[in-house]
Design a protein that fits this description.
One of its GO terms (molecular function) is RNA-DNA hybrid ribonuclease activity. InterPro entries: RNase_H-like (IPR053151), RNase_H-like_dom_plant (IPR044730), RNaseH-like_sf (IPR012337), RNaseH_domain (IPR002156), RNaseH_sf (IPR036397). It holds the Pfam family RVT_3. The structure is a single chain. The protein is about 30% helix and about 25% strand. The chain is α/β, with parallel strands linked by helices and about 150 residues long. It has a single domain, classed as Ribonuclease H-like superfamily/Ribonuclease H (Nucleotidyltransferase, domain 5, 2-Layer Sandwich). Strands 3-2-1-4-5 form a five-stranded mixed beta sheet, with helices on both faces. It is globular and about 40 Å long.
C-alpha cells in the first residue's frame, strides 16, 4: 500500500515528456500574489524556470489557475508539445481533468487553459503534494518580492 503523503505519484515518462511543476503564493496580509514554475526534462535536467508577481486575486485557487495557465503558455512558447503539469492544488487538477466541474471563480481561466491545450500533442494534469513541490513553492514565495517576471 502506498501513502501519497510520503511517495510521489508514479509518472511514466518518455524522452519527449516535460514536467512542469507549478505553484502559486498568496499573502492576504500584504495583498501580494505570485506564481512560479520549473520545467524539467524526463531525465531531471532543468529546461527553464519562471517566477512572477501577479495582481492580487484574493483566493488561492485563482492564483493556482493563473500559474497553470502561464505554465502552458510557456510550454507553447518554447515548443514543448508533451507535458505533465504537476500542481499541489488537488481541486484545480480535478477541475482541469473534468472529474469535477470548474467553480465559477475559475471557470474562465479553465476555459483559457483548455483552449491552450489545442497547441499541445499530449498534456496531463497531476496532483503532487506540496512536500514534493518544495522547490517550486519556494520560487513562488520568492516571487512576492519581484517587481516583474523572471525566467
Amino acid at each position: 500500500m502506498s501513502d501519497t503523503s510520503t511517495n510521489p505519484p508514479l509518472l511514466t515518462l518518455s524522452s519527449e515528456k516535460v514536467l512542469l511543476y507549478v505553484d502559486a503564493g498568496l499573502d492576504p496580509k500584504t495583498c501580494k500574489a505570485s506564481i512560479g514554475m520549473v520545467a524539467l526534462k524526463a531525465n531531471g535536467d532543468v529546461l527553464y524556470t519562471y517566477g512572477s508577481p501577479i495582481p492580487f486575486v484574493g483566493k488561492a485557487i485563482i492564483a493556482e489557475a493563473c500559474a497553470i495557465k502561464k505554465a502552458i503558455q510557456l510550454a507553447v512558447k518554447y515548443d514543448r508539445k508533451n507535458i505533465d503539469i504537476l500542481s499541489d492544488s488537488l481541486i484545480m487538477v480535478q477541475m482541469l481533468n473534468e472529474s469535477r466541474g470548474p467553480s465559477w471563480e475559475v471557470n474562465t481561466l479553465c476555459e483559457d487553459i483548455w483552449a491552450l491545450q489545442q497547441h499541445l500533442s499530449d498534456i496531463s494534469f497531476k496532483y503532487l503534494s506540496r512536500g514534493f513541490n518544495t522547490c517550486n513553492h519556494k520560487l513562488a514565495k520568492f516571487s512576492f518580492a519581484l517587481v516583474s517576471e523572471v525566467s
